[in-house]
Design brief:
This protein is an alpha+beta fold. The protein is built from 26 helices and 26 strands. Strands 14, 15, 16, 17, 18, 19 and 20 form a seven-stranded antiparallel β-sheet that branches. Strands 2-13-10-3-9 form a five-stranded mixed β-sheet. It binds 2-(butylsulfanyl)adenosine.
Length: about 675
């Protein structure tokens, strides 16, 4: 870099850092992850230290934070609230210990160690034991008065638990939001159609820096004390750990995981121990803090510009990083759900290199508005699948890339080419390929063979995987082509088990229609519905030909189930598979040719006369037909029932003459209910 380029880089870094400071501290709306901010900050620090002529008094490296917002009253801190230097690698933590040992001229140093809470710093002023003021850190010298808001935090005592309170005690600690409370808050925000918070820390900051403390009260904030800023008219115990014990006695919340350890070995062991608990902790932490335990030692070490020399924050690998979206594809799941997969420029986050992240469905794509070319914040915590947290709006390429819409981009399934549908009221887009779609094949085959479906014993997950992976079985119909010669060639398939499987496949032929319909794995058609459908339609062809209205006339079949069924049979692939299954005699239809004969009114003829008390004539007709009956206009010997209301006509007398049973409305309803 030339001198000019260096100066330009420094100028740009400052501008960017100031912008992010403003977004973080004033707007509570950071757009880049902390790790990225740290890098920008470090780069600037490094350039300034290598080129001292570039250091200006207004450089962000010379101050702690940003200005407070204007609306909350400013509070000047009695002693500044500084920040901690960071260590990222074990060597940096060891170097910290070495510097401390040298400065204190000790062989081994005792440290008070505690988690580094990922929230925001506040100071609590207790006058004669009464909480009189709470302030945010602000720029470290001047913060904001958030007393009213802090008083809504239940765990913070309004009065210290002691008979002899000091004249003034200023407690310092961190306000944060528990992970569970954060999830709950975002759920509520979503339900109200309001903006969600990117992470618990933003949620805590946004909740604390409220002008209306009633909002803070609803937000469930937590607090942990980590030190004392000022003590007047009292004496502190000699170590940090004893100070913390004292605060605990005063009934201030302190963290249970705090410890004292010895030397570099002790701090690193603590780092590993807390690191392994990180994902199970009820709140977010971004590292651990090591503090020289002796307060006298702390005093000897003192401060350098913006941080103490007696403490350091040893950060965990960042769980959020920034990278670029290279493409958005979809993945077809075992049940046909199309899940958007964001292909990322590889990025190291949460301890691994991440190249993909999922977005659950179109709703999430819309909410986060992720587009190809966008710079996004990616989060990976523990073993969970990496997720896209948000887009960095300032880094969206120009002109705006196209929005991603699953149904537009994928009208057909990328695996099998069947239509992709998004059913009403469902968040997921689905491949309608069913049995035909290889992505769904294994699941479909397992279901087909399962005990309550075709009951093919021995056709389990491992075998299905092999059969599909070797291409031997593509659809359930292929199962019936499997013979000894194909099976014995498979991995770990003894002759005996192959023979057993062949026999089980044979036995499954000629299944009842109910089992077969269930085995097809039509969405929303469970075992009970399959039985109803089989009883009602009796022939697969009748079920296949049924329209939405006919399907819905089956008891318990509503519009959603009916739609799933018609969609299933509308796919030619599904029908082809069924035809092949018919060819191998997979199922047996009912013997008699008539559709609906098993219904209560199957094949019965009704004649309506006179006005019924509650049903209109059309309603009565519809109900009779829905149960398989027919309604005719005239009475004959073939008429099964005459339904008579008030003022019946000649049909009534005719029925009496012919001896046809006569029902009133109650009688009809009873028959319909049978
Ligand atoms: S002690 C002189 N202890 O980290 C500063 N700070 O970068 C003494 N933090 O603003 C701070 N957990 O908000 C301390 N156990 C802990 C902490 C902690 C989180 C935050 C604090 C501070 C920032 C420093």
């Amino acid at each position: 870099m030339t001198a000019d380029q260096m100066a330009e880089r420094v100028r740009r870094l400052r501008e960017e850092i100031e912008l992010h400071n403003y977004r973080y501290y004033v707007l509570d709306e950071p757009s880049i992850p902390d790790a990225e901010f740290d890098r920008l900050f470090r780069e600037l620090q490094q350039l300034e230290s290598q080129n001292p002529e570039l250091l200006t008094p207004d450089s962000p490296t010379l101050r702690v934070g940003a200005r407070p917002v204007s609306e909350l009253a400013p509070v000047t801190h009695r002693t500044p609230m500084l920040s901690l230097n960071n260590a990222f690698a074990a060597e940096e933590a060891e170097a910290f210990d070495r510097r401390v040992r040298e400065a204190l001229q000790l062989d081994s140093v005792e440290y008070a160690v505690e988690p580094k809470f990922d929230g925001l710093a506040i100071s609590l002023s207790y006058h004669n034991g009464i909480l009189v003021q709470a302030a945010t850190r602000g720029d470290g010298y001047t913060g904001e008065d958030v007393s009213a808001n802090v008083k809504t935090i239940r765990s913070i005592p309004l009065r210290l638990h002691t008979d002899k309170p000091p004249h003034l005690l200023e407690v310092r600690g961190e306000v944060l939001m528990l992970k569970a409370d954060f999830e709950r808050l975002n759920r509520l925000q979503r339900e109200k159609g309001e903006k969600e918070f990117a992470n618990p820390r933003n949620a805590a900051a946004g909740s604390l820096r409220q002008l209306d403390s009633r909002i803070t009260a609803e937000r469930r904030l937590s607090f942990f004390a980590y030190g004392v800023g000022v003590l007047e008219d009292g004496e502190l115990p000699p170590t940090h750990s004893a100070v913390m014990d004292w605060l605990e006695h005063l009934r201030l919340p302190v963290c249970e995981q705090r410890q004292t350890v010895q030397g570099a070995e002790g701090i690193l062991a603590y780092y590993r121990a807390i690191g392994s608990q990180r994902d199970r902790m009820p709140y977010e932490i971004d590292g651990v803090v090591y503090k020289v335990n002796s307060l006298q030692g702390q005093e000897t070490l003192g401060f350098v510009s913006r941080a103490p020399r007696f403490a350091v924050a040893h950060k965990f690998p960042a769980q959020e990083e920034m990278t670029v979206v290279e493409a958005i594809d979809v993945q077809v799941g075992r049940t046909g759900t199309l899940t958007p997969v964001v292909r990322l420029k590889p990025v190291f986050v949460g301890g691994v290199t991440v190249t993909n992240a999922t977005l659950h469905n179109q709703d999430e794509v819309d909410r986060k508005d992720v587009r190809v070319g966008d710079t996004v914040i990616v989060r990976r915590a523990g073993d969970v699948i990496p997720e896209v947290v948000s887009v960095v709006p300032e880094r969206r390429p120009k002109p705006d890339p196209q929005r991603f819409n699953i149904l537009e981009q994928y009208p057909v399934c990328p695996v099998c080419g069947s239509r992709v549908v998004r059913l009403q009221g469902e968040a997921a887009a689905r491949c309608s390929g069913g049995l035909y779609c290889p992505a769904q094949r294994k699941q479909a085959l397992l279901h087909f063979a399962s005990r309550r479906a075709m009951d093919i014993e021995g056709l389990g997950e491992k075998l299905v995987d092999q059969l599909v992976d070797t291409g031997l079985v593509k659809t359930p119909a292929d199962i019936y082509r499997l013979g000894m010669s194909e099976l014995v060639n498979l991995d770990r398939m003894a002759e005996k088990s192959a023979a057993n499987l062949v026999a089980a496949i044979e036995r499954s032929r000629g299944a009842t229609l109910a089992r077969f319909v269930f085995a097809l794995g039509i969405r929303n058609v469970g075992e009970a519905t399959a039985k109803d459908l089989a009883r009602y339609f009796r022939h697969l062809d009748a079920l296949k030909a049924a329209d939405l209205a006919q399907l819905q006339s089956v008891p318990e079949v509503g519009p959603i189930v009916a739609e799933s069924i018609t969609r299933f049979f509308a796919e030619t692939h599904n029908c082809e598979v069924i035809e092949r299954l018919r060819g191998v005699g997979a199922w047996k239809d009912a013997e008699s040719g008539e559709a609906f004969p098993l219904l209560a009114l199957g094949g019965k003829t009704f004649v309506l006369t006179g006005a019924l008390p509650s049903l209109t004539r059309d309603e009565a007709k519809e109900r009779i037909e829905a149960r398989g009956g027919k309604v005719s206009g005239s009475v004959s010997k073939k008429t099964d029932y005459v339904v008579a209301g008030a003022d019946p006509g000649s049909k009534f007398t005719k029925a009496q003459e012919l001896g046809v049973p006569i029902l009133d409305e109650t009688g009809l309803l009873a028959l319909l209910a049978e």
